[in-house]
Amino acid sequence: MAHIPDLEDAVRIALAGLATSHPYTDARTLARHAELVVWEQDAERLRRFTDEHPGAKVAAGLAELLATEPDGVVLTVPNPQAPDALRAVLETGAPVFMNKPAAATRAQLDALDRLEITDRVLSSSVLRFAPAFTAARIDPAEVLSVRATVRHDVGLWATGYNPWQDTPGEGGGTMVTMGIHGVELLVALLGPAVRLAGAAGSVRHYEGLRSEDTGVMALRWDSGVTGTVEIIGVSDSEAYTVTVHTRQGSRDIVIDSGDDVLKGLGYEGTVEAFLTMVGGAPSPVPWAETRAILGVLVDAREAVPAR
Description:
Structural class: alpha/beta
Domain Gfo/Idh/MocA-like oxidoreductase N-terminal: 27-116
Order of helices and strands: EHEHEHEHEHEHEHHHHEEEEEHHH
Keywords: Oxidoreductase
Helix content: 25-40%
CATH superfamily of the largest domain: Dihydrodipicolinate Reductase, domain 2
Protein name: Dehydrogenase
Largest sheet: 6 strands, parallel
Domain GFO/IDH/MocA-like oxidoreductase: 142-250
Number of strands: 12
InterPro entries: Gfo/Idh/MocA-like_OxRdtase_N, Gfo/Idh/MocA_oxidrdct_glycsds, GFO_IDH_MocA-like_dom, NAD(P)-bd_dom_sf
CATH topology of the largest domain: Dihydrodipicolinate Reductase, domain 2
Number of helices: 13
C-alpha cells in the first residue's frame, strides 16, 4: 500500500489556481500533511485563501509556482486555461490532481488528447471517494440499468458568480459541471465502455443562468446496460443517489455530507488518494475512465443548445 506522506516528510504541495470552491476545501486536508504554496490570478480569491492559511507561500505566477519544485500539484484554473496549465505541470513530472471537470468543450478535450497524460494525473469527482460509495459492492453482471441523481443548487451562478462556469462554451454549464458527478459514479461502477444516447436540459427556476438548472442524460454501455443521469440544480439540499436495478429489485446508494462534509462527500478521500500518488503510487482512477466521462459530458453539452 502506498505511503501517505505527513509533515515530517517535508512535503510541498502547490495549489495552481483557486478558480472554484474545491481547492479551498482540498487545502483543509492538505494542510495536515504538507506545506502549501499557492498561485491565483484573482486577488480577492487569493486573499480569502491566505486568510485561512497564513503560512502558505504565495507565487506570482504559474511558472514561479512550479519553480518551487512541489511534490504534487492541485490544478484548478478556468477550463479554457486548463490544457496549457496541465502541459506546464506535466513537464515537471510531479503528480497532479486536476479538479473537475478537466474539460468542458470539444476544443478543450481535443487539447487534452494532444497531451501525454500518464498515470501521474488524477481528475475525478470527489464523490467517487465518498465512504458511502466506496463501501458499495455491486456486481456489474447483475445490473440491468442504473440511475444517478445529482441534487446541487446552481442559483449562485444566476447572481453572476463565476460566469465562466455557467457559460456552455467555457466551463460547460450545469450539464457538465454538475453532470460529471453522476456520470463519474456510473462509470466507476460499470466501466468506461459507455456512450451518450441522448440529453436534454431546461431552465425551470433560475432565469439568469447562461446554461440550464435541470438536465438529463441517457447512457448505454457496450454490455447493454442502460443508464440515466438526472441533474437537479434547483434544490434546498445537496445529495447524490445512485440507483442500481437488478432482477432482484432496486438498491439505492445515497451520498450526503452527514456530520462531516469533508469525509461524507469524498473530499478527504480524494486528497488522501492524491497523497498516495505523491508517495509514488499511480493514479487510482485510470485516465481511460476520465476520458470516457469527459467524452460523455462534451457530447451531452453539444446535444443541448446554449441559451
